[in-house]
Automatic annotation (TrEMBL):
Residues 79-114 have a biased composition (Low complexity). Keywords: Cell shape, Cell wall biogenesis/degradation, Chaperone, Cytoplasm, RNA-binding. GO terms for cellular component: cytoplasm. Residues 63-122, 249-323 are annotated as: Disordered. The keyword Cell wall biogenesis/degradation applies. It comes from the Bacteria. It is found in: Cytoplasm. Pfam families: Jag_N, KH_KhpA-B, R3H. GO terms for molecular function: RNA binding. The gene is khpB. Has an N-terminal Jag-N domain and 2 RNA-binding domains (KH and R3H). This is RNA-binding protein KhpB. Residues 202-268 form the R3H domain. GO terms for biological process: cell wall organization; peptidoglycan biosynthetic process; regulation of cell shape.
């Protein structure tokens, strides 16, 4: 009896053969026709195909026909025990690869993390808190939650998204700050909660990166440092990260919250004397002897500049006045 069994792994296909024939694996001859291939991230692609051969009649005949001595050695066929080592080498390496599959897949897919009960409670607390504020404002409180490596992102999409975001995300930042304070209150382990609406965070991140590149080019061209407007810590980190990838410029923060700013500077600033233009050079050629002196050539200028009598007598500030 020969049959071909298909399963996700070779081991499962062999188990199907054992249950189908109702015989131990040692009495079944297996031949692996196809094995599943290991793809990206350790995932298995395709299925395993195993050919199983089992001869129940030949093994039962010697038991029933005891008087037939010549027939006894034929069905026993020492090939059955001799083939046992051939079955085991094929099965052992396949069995060793089976446990690797559940270890590789969760390592990639489950890494972004499943929330603990405490973290899930914090996320739900923050969501309900922000939703209550939006309802009191007459806005939609529909939201979705996304688990990230550092925490969760709560996205509120619906009518009035502009009101939720505010001017340059100020309202969104305020909601995020309040939600974080409420959910992490009285707990030493901080759980990061990000509030977003209509993909504003990603759009703002791209805008800040382009701003950092533009300012860096200007600093490289002029050699002058440029101070940006006050930003929150999240946006300052985006600026610092973008500037760090550009050669010739550096960045640092200055000031105190909430007015802390980022300053982008050149690593090779120009000296003040090197910034003289052509007009400065022409002026120096026209006046090589320095500033022009006053010429008292005319009689009017001589009379005007002639010392007064009170100057010659060193009279006091308030002298005698005669009428």
């Amino acid at each position: 009896m020969i049959e071909i069994f298909t399963a996700k792994t070779v081991e499962e296909a062999q188990e199907q053969a054992v249950s189908a024939f109702g015989a131990p694996a040692s009495q079944i001859r297996f031949e692996i026709l196809e094995q599943p291939r290991r793809g990206l991230f350790g995932k298995l692609k395709g299925e395993a195909r195993v050919k199983a051969e089992y001869e129940p009649m030949m093994q039962q005949t010697p038991v029933r026909e005891a008087p037939a001595a010549p027939a006894a050695p034929v069905p026993q066929q020492p090939a059955a025990p001799a083939e046992e080592p051939a079955v085991q080498p094929d099965a052992v390496p396949v069995a060793e690869t089976v446990p690797e599959t559940p270890e590789a897949v969760p390592a990639e897919e489950a890494a972004p993390a499943e929330l603990t009960e405490e973290q899930a409670a914090k996320a739900e607390h923050a969501r309900s808190y922000v939703a209550s504020i939006l309802r009191s404002m007459g806005l939609s409180d529909a939201s979705t939650m996304t688990v990230t490596e550092s925490g969760v992102t709560l996205t509120f999409d619906g009518d009035g998204s502009g009101t939720i975001i505010g001017r340059r995300g100020e309202t969104l930042d305020a909601l995020q700050y309040l939600a974080s304070m409420v959910s992490n209150k009285g707990d030493k382990e901080y759980f990061r909660i990000t509030i977003d609406s209509c993909g504003y965070r990603e759009k703002r991140r791209k805008t800040l990166i382009e701003l950092a590149k533009k300012i860096s080019k200007s600093v490289l061209r002029t050699g002058r440092s440029t101070t940006l407007e006050p930003m929150n810590p999240y946006e300052r980190r985006i600026i610092h990260s973008a500037v760090s990838e550009i050669e010739g410029v550096t960045s640092h923060s200055t000031g105190e919250e909430p007015y802390r700013k980022v300053i982008i500077s050149s690593t090779n600033p120009r000296k003040g004397g090197e910034r003289r233009g052509r007009n400065d050079r022409d002026r120096r050629r026209r006046n090589p002897e320095g500033p022009r002196k006053l010429d008292l050539a005319t009689s009017f200028e001589k009379d005007y500049k002639r010392p007064k009598p009170e100057d010659e007598l060193n009279a006091g500030l308030y002298g005698k006045i005669e009428f």
